[in-house]
């Protein structure tokens, strides 16, 4: 089988073909968009396997190449140090390195979900982007008020309620401040309507997903957190253990171990940041709603207020593993067994329970 490495760009691509012995068979330069690239792929000798880096549009490329190649592997660009840390970076060189990694079976692969899940993820990320933009506009409104010495609305009224809006309208401001304030409020309303439109579409998708409904049985986990987790996990069976899901979402600490030295640092922050953010928010709510989750959180915090952020991250990590175990076993949230012990198990009897003291000390190295 031939090994084909492709360095893909929007209007120009490089193709390297290695034969069955790993020797260079042919090198092609394709000038044109992706349809031209597919035409060049159709001329390659068969059978062949393909490798390319994940980038914008990698799902479309994967689907198109899967119709033509015996196998398609999408490489994680952040783990290709052979390429992005190279002193000589060139399209021809990069495509040959990809072909060599494919020939040697050393490609750091990424999971490619189907087109429906990719669309689901796109809506989730679009909503999160709009929420961030709306929050930025609200902060700018507060900045305009603070510039004239107003720190908050009178009483306990919210600035974004009807009473708060009426109060903002009655404020005496300079013309420049009034124009800025009016424009910001218009943008906030626009973002709010767009967010509601996206949420209606997401709810249609979520109601048809048993995994989302199952995850929502956890105290503090709502529709937005459950759908994001389910969309990015996609198929939980692709993880050998539920602990690998925590690593996938970047909850585990960085590690520098050599000989008798073992240093643990901040969490890796790998994977989708949207899921980590939503899980942290859900953790705050779960701590308030569930005595069991709160006891777990307090155990990690050790009555030390300075460890609150560490405990929040550790609890979010634990909840991540619990959610993965629920998806794997098909169970709903159960925090106790007949003996009052935590019991949320995965297939094969793997128990997800609070950590022992050694793991609590390990959680002390985590940071938000």
Walk me through the structure:
It is a single chain. With 368 residues, the chain is of the alpha/beta class. It folds into 3 domains: 2-104, Nucleotidyltransferase, domain 5; 115-208; 223-363, no CATH class. Helix content is 52%, strand content 12%. The chain has helices spanning 34-42, 58-66, 81-84, 91-104, 115-147, 162-170, 175-207, 210-215, 223-233, 243-248, 273-289, 291-301, 308-329, 357-363, and strands spanning 2-7, 12-18, 24-31, 48-53, 71-75, 253-258, 261-267. It has a 5-stranded mixed beta sheet. The chain has a two-stranded antiparallel ribbon with strand order 6-7. Strand 1 (2-7) and strand 2 (12-18) form a beta hairpin. The radius of gyration is 25 Å and the shape is globular.
In short, what is this structure?
With 368 residues, this protein is of the alpha/beta class. The chain has 14 helices and seven strands.
Main sheet record: 5 strands, mixed
Question: What share of residues is helical?
Answer: 40-55%
Number of helices: 14
Q: What topology, given as strand order, has the largest sheet?
A: 3-2-1-4-5
Mean pLDDT: 88
End-to-end separation in angstroms reads: 47 Å
Note the overall shape: globular
Number of strands: 7
Query: What is the total number of structural domains?
Result: 3
Please indicate the percent range of residues in DSSP E strands (runs of 2 or more).
Answer: 5-15%
Structural class: alpha/beta
Radius of gyration (CA) equals: 25 Å
Q: Note poorly predicted spans.
A: 344-350, 354-368
Element-level helix/strand string: EEEHEHEHHHHHHHHEEHHHH
């Amino acid at each position: 089988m031939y090994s084909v490495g492709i360095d893909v760009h929007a209007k120009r691509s490089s193709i390297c073909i290695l034969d069955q012995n790993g020797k260079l068979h042919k090198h092609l330069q394709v000038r044109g968009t992706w349809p031209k690239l597919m035409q060049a792929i159709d001329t390659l000798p068969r059978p062949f396997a393909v490798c390319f880096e994940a980038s914008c549009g990698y799902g479309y490329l994967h689907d198109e190449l899967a119709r033509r190649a015996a196998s398609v592997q999408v490489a994680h660009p952040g783990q290709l140090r052979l390429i992005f840390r190279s002193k000589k970076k060139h399209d021809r060189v990069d495509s040959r390195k990809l072909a060599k990694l494919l020939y040697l079976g050393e490609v750091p692969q990424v999971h490619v979900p189907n087109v429906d899940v990719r669309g689901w993820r796109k809506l989730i990320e679009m909503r999160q982007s709009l929420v961030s933009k709306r929050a930025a506009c609200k902060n700018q409104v507060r900045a305009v008020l603070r510039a004239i010495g107003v720190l908050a609305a009178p009483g306990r009224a919210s600035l974004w309620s009807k009473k708060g809006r009426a109060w903002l309208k009655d404020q005496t401001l300079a013309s420049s401040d009034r124009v800025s304030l009016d424009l910001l409020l218009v943008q906030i309303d626009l973002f709010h309507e767009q967010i509601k439109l996206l949420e209606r579409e997401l709810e249609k998708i979520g109601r048809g997903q048993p995994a989302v409904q199952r995850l929502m049985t956890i105290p503090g986990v709502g529709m937005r957190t459950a759908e994001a987790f389910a969309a990015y996990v996609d198929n939980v069976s692709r993880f050998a253990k539920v602990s690998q899901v925590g690593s996938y979402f970047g909850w585990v600490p960085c590690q520098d171990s050599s000989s008798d030295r073992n240093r643990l640092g901040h969490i890796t922050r790998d994977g989708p940041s949207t899921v980590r953010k939503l899980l942290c928010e859900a953790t705050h709510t779960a701590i308030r709603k569930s005595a069991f989750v709160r006891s777990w959180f307090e155990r990690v915090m050790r009555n030390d207020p300075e460890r609150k952020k560490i405990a929040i991250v550790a609890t979010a990590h634990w909840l991540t593993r619990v959610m993965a175990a629920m998806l794997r076993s098909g169970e709903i949230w159960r925090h106790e067994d007949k003996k009052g012990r935590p019991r949320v198990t995965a297939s094969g009897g793997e128990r997800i329970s609070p950590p022992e003291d050694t793991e609590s000390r390990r959680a002390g190295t985590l940071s938000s």
